[in-house]
Design a protein that fits this description.
Blueprint (H helix, E strand, L loop, with lengths): L2 E9 L2 E3 L4 E7 L5 E7 L14 H5 L3 E8 L8 E14 L5 E8 L10 E9 H9 L9 E4 L5 E10 L1 H11 L3 E4 L4 E4 L5 E6 L4 E6 L6 E7 L4 E5 L8 H14 L4 E3 L8 H17 L2 E7 L9 E11 L2 E20 L3 E10 L19 E7 L10 E4 L13 E2 L4 E2 L2 E2 L9 E6 L7 E7 L15 E5 L4 E8 L2 E8 L2 E9 L5 E5 L61
Parallel strand pairs: 9-12, 13-19, 15-17, 24-28
Antiparallel strand pairs: 1-2, 1-5, 1-21, 3-4, 3-20, 4-7, 5-6, 6-7, 8-10, 11-12, 14-18, 15-16, 18-21, 19-20, 20-21, 22-23, 22-27, 25-26, 27-28, 29-30, 30-31, 31-32, 32-33
């Protein structure tokens, strides 16, 4: 026998006085839905048989559905808040039409568009608050109190709706996140407990599942230059049957899955926590309790205290406790005469973390363009911060991003850090949006230069100060120039034409300084200048098979004593 309830349905300014069926589906991880089938004449003029006024009065309106037991057999006051998202016209027969008023929980408002935005150095509470800030508390009541309190170095929303991003955050940090019919709850779940007596009218089924649940994790922290490993370790606190199912799963499935953490890891404890969270959420639903009854109090997040009675002799029953369970899914139905029933799923109440959310998937981050906003890395690791080319520019700034180089190492390597305002190409480690890395710089219209030549015959490297190395590669005439764009009269020219030529040219001064300088030539050494001066503080030796000193006008040799030997 079903429970008789009195139902009140208010949608915007319209009260639904009569319906032929009412169904509400509620789930821990997804949007709740409702469906109310109403005779068409209750919403339109009796002479109408098509959309006339109902769609204008109902679509997009907030709906309040409540019901209470008619005969007070169970103290209950069910209330559900939703929004109408669909109105369907049903043709039941040649003469009877109905409207199906369909809708979702207000969490559905958070599907209002995928977006990209970054959060730097913020707590989980702050990030979630920013995501929810676009939705008024009247349309989406909420309680946000996540247990994870540490600041998160970098977290990005990437082509995800706000609801999907919020769900992913909750899953990554092991937070309860669910709509209970009246408000969105993030953090510690509710504590309300309701009795569920298996008495022939209310029924239950229970299943014990075995599934792979061994995980090990690895993460490398480049700032600390440390590799963290978190080996599998068993969990507990699942209740008698839950602990049994977990132990049997461990014995049945031997190998541990090797995974990469989906959140920032600074210390070994962070990695251990990430693995433990995944382990615990996967273990929560090893025990699945399925019930059906008539208590409207049973809602997502509440606890049911299950007891039963067994007939052991005529008129004599034995009471038995089956444990406490937290409801994760529930379906409420009411027919046209007010008969209420529900069916639900639940997990052991002792589980500290929610069951794994099968709807959560990390977005696959693809290469994209960004602009450097600073390259003054306090840790001197060659990192930069960038502004992503996202529609939301105010929320598109990164944390420190590493830059790839052709060759790196201790006291060696190449260092070409992108300059501020340079455009760079971003890729992602493991395609995960929270781990960007710069793989190169790219030109655009405003950074074009004059160093483009036919047949791509010249290559060059130029710094912001104008220092440049130019490689010319004409057929049969390869050359290298080292110069400065701001002082074109200074040039080191290396030519590989013929036997090769090296020319060092400047309009200023060339200085050579060393302990010893030695110049050797296989054929000759020639020096030409209007004036050549050689000065030695000690002595000057000029030796050769023959020495020829010739002056076109005079030869002047001066000394206190001049000695000529033959």
């Amino acid at each position: 026998m079903a429970q008789q309830v009195e139902v009140n349905v208010q949608i915007g300014g319209t009260r639904i006085k009569h319906f032929t069926s009412l169904t509400i589906h509620q789930s821990l991880h997804t949007h709740h839905t409702f469906d109310i089938v109403v005779p068409l004449e209750d919403l339109e003029d009796k002479n109408e048989f098509f959309f006339k006024n109902a769609h204008q009065a109902l679509c997009g309106q907030m709906a309040t559905i409540s019901f209470t037991p008619k005969y007070k057999l169970v103290a209950a006051d069910f209330r559900f808040l939703g929004v109408v998202t669909e109105l369907a016209l049903l043709n039941n027969s040649d003469t009877v039409n109905s409207y199906s008023i369909r809708g979702h929980s207000p969490t559905y408002l958070m599907e209002d568009g995928m977006q990209r935005r970054a959060f730097v150095g913020q707590t989980l509470d702050k990030i979630m608050g920013a995501v929810l800030n676009d939705y008024g508390s009247d349309s989406l009541p909420r309680s946000v109190a996540p247990k994870y309190a540490a600041a998160i170095d970098y977290k990005a929303q990437y082509d995800e709706s706000n609801f999907d991003f919020l769900s992913r955050l909750a899953a990554e940090y092991g937070e309860w996140c669910y709509y209970d019919g009246q408000q969105l709850n993030i953090g510690k779940p509710g504590t309300a407990v309701y009795p569920f007596v298996v008495d022939g009218i209310q029924h239950f089924d229970m299943s014990i599942r075995l599934k792979p649940n061994k995980f090990s994790m690895y993460h490398y922290n480049y700032v600390k230059h440390r590799a963290f490993n978190s080996a599998h370790a068993p969990t507990g606190g699942l209740g008698t049957l839950g602990d049994f199912a977990y132990a049997q799963s461990q014995a049945t499935f031997g190998n541990a899955a090797q995974l990469w953490p989906l959140k920032d890891v600074q210390f070994q404890g962070d990695l251990d926590e990430a693995r433990q969270t995944l382990n615990a959420t996967n273990a929560t639903d090893l025990i699945d309790f399925q019930g059906s009854g008539e208590n409207p109090n049973i809602n997502v997040g509440v606890i049911v205290d299950v007891t039963g009675q067994k007939l052991i002799a005529p008129g004599k029953y034995k009471q038995e406790a089956f444990g406490k369970y937290r409801v994760t899914h529930v379906t409420h139905t009411v027919d046209e005469i007010g008969n209420y029933a529900n069916s639900f799923n639940a997990v052991p109440e002792s589980a500290q973390l929610p069951p794994r959310n099968p709807s959560v998937h990390s977005p696959v981050a693809l290469p994209e363009i960004a602009t450097v906003i600073t390259n003054v890395d306090p840790l001197k690791l060659g990192r930069v911060k960038v502004q992503f080319h996202w529609p939301n520019q105010l929320a598109g700034k990164s944390s420190w991003v590493r830059v790839t180089f052709p060759y790196t190492g201790s006291s060696r390597g190449m260092l070409f850090i992108p300059e501020k305002d340079d455009q760079v190409l971003i890729s992602y480690e493991a395609n995960h949006v929270d781990f960007p890395v710069i793989v190169g710089s790219i030109y655009h219209k405003s950074t074009q230069n004059d160093y483009w030549f036919p047949d791509n015959e010249q290559k060059f490297i130029r710094t912001k100060g104008g220092n440049k190395i130019v490689f010319k590669e004409k057929q049969g005439k390869q050359e290298i120039f080292i110069t400065n764009a701001n002082n074109k009269g200074t040039n080191l020219h290396i030519s590989f034409e013929g036997d090769g030529t090296i020319t060092l040219e400047t309009k200023g001064l060339i200085k050579m300084k060393a302990k010893n300088i030695e110049m050797k030539a296989d054929k000759s050494i020639t020096m030409k200048a209007p004036t050549i001066e050689a000065t030695a503080t000690n002595s000057v030796d000029v030796k050769g098979m023959s020495v020829n000193i010739k002056g076109r006008t005079t030869v002047d040799v001066k000394a206190p004593f001049v000695k000529i030997n033959s």
